[in-house]
Design brief:
The chain is an alpha/beta fold. Helices cover 34% and strands 22% of the residues. The protein is built from 6 helices and 7 strands, in the order H-H-E-E-H-E-E-E-H-E-H-E-H. The strands form 2 sheets. Strands 3-4-5-6-7 form a 5-stranded mixed sheet, sandwiched between helices. Helix 4 packs parallel to helix 5. The longest helix is centred in the N-terminal third of the chain and has 16 residues.
Length: 186
């Protein structure tokens, strides 16, 4: 702040944030902190800070397999899925998210033909649906394609992990042979 830098602080105990870090940062942003280099840089306040709490992982790895953690119940799976896939978490049963003209449905269980038919009938005109389920009946993909063109069916947690990995590669600038094709001229 005082030196015009951006930084990230990490603290394991929330009590340390509440007792020491937040009060001090608040004083700094308000220009009330006389410590450090305040006089050297003629600091008078400004800038800001955020305190974020990191939740435990929604996945558990066991014997090379990935499963949802036990705490991902009662709407938490839908909320986390919406965030991970870039949807605004918006509860409008049976939908739990919206992104443009796409709706999100999260099913903690099997998505079969009956579920797809039910969801397709609830879908407003000219909208698509992304259905995420913890188990997918392969035949339900064909039904969804026929009932709602442009809609997709994704398996949790595989779809979320895939989304996370691809977003991370883009942010970090990783280049793979799949993302670049180069034409060689003689």
């Amino acid at each position: 702040m005082k030196m015009g830098r951006r930084w990230v602080g990490v603290e394991r105990e929330s009590s340390v944030i509440q007792t020491y870090a937040s009060p001090r940062l608040k004083l700094v942003t308000e220009g009330q902190d006389a410590g450090g280099i305040t006089k050297d840089v003629m600091w008078q306040g400004g800038s800001g800070f955020r305190v974020l709490e990191v939740s435990p992982s929604m996945f558990v790895a066991e014997d090379g397999m990935v499963f949802l953690a036990d705490w991902m119940t009662n709407g938490k799976l839908a909320e986390a899925t919406a965030a991970q896939l870039g949807f605004v978490h918006e509860i409008d049963p049976p939908f739990c998210g919206r992104k443009g003209r796409s709706r999100l449905v999260v099913v903690d269980g099997i998505v079969n033909e009956s579920v797809v038919r039910l969801l397709a009938t609830a879908l407003p005109d000219r909208e698509r649906v992304v259905i995420c389920g913890t188990a997918i009946d392969p035949d339900s993909r064909l039904v969804l394609r026929d009932l709602s063109r442009g809609s997709t069916l994704r398996k949790i947690p595989a779809a979320l992990l895939e989304e996370f990995r691809s977003a991370r590669q883009l942010k970090l600038g990783f280049v793979t042979s799949e993302t670049v094709t180069e034409e060689v001229q003689p």
